[in-house]
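== Sequence, structure tokens ==
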Amino acid sequence: MLHSKAERAYLQQGFDAGLRSDGRGCHDWRPVEVALAQLPQASGSARCCVGGTEVLVSVKAEVRTPTEEAPGCGGIQLAVEVSPCAGLRLQGRGDEELGAELTRALERCLLSQANGAGGCLDLSALCIVAGKSCWVLCVDALVLSADGCVLDALSIAAKAALADTRIPLVEVTQADEDGDAELELDDDPTHAARLDTARVPVLVTVSQVGAALAVDLNAEEGACAGAALEVAVDARGRLCGATMRAHSAPLHPSSLQEMLGLAQRLGPRLLRELDRQIGQSAAAASVAMQE
């Protein structure tokens, strides 16, 4: 965190010139590193590092009763926790409050409805017996360290963890005396089904620093930002949602459009790199499983 006006002025001058203190341009990310299958006991998991920011996401598939609103679909539940050692302190808020805020932001990215219906996943594929049983994906995220770009890293790790998730095959046996079907789960991971995550977006936070627009601000740079827009973008550059970050300065409509356009251009680039790393990690895991 910056403590002097001179430091702020120095960074702002760098942004105005298109050159940041670490040598990046305004539209460049720090190295993004993704690793899958970090938690063997989970249905899927991933770790994402963006500079000094590190997050871990796990997915656990649980058999539950579907909702009355969507009897033929499964669901997604999200929760984000902030480690006391993460160093994330904003506006005097504690870890629990920050975790709740990050959870809501991630929900806006991955879910289309408050009841857990997802706009980016085919939740009908999670149905086991309509009106009786379904899979619910419990997505739990932990912020291990924070040096800016936390929400973007969470969305990257969430997409990677969902891509890593294996859903056990289920055999529905004859109904019992109460009319309820019995379920037999296949524990063989090679028989498990995968989720189609092609439409899952990532969040690109576009920040305004002086007159410049930039992505992936570290903690020091974030102290200079006047406004920040969190934009969910899919692989085709389509907007899936956008939210002004809390405590952001007001934006002129022309600046808002420019920020949205920047996220639409940069989001697919980030997703291509993510898909490349997911493919490499999945291939390595497949080889290890066969050995």
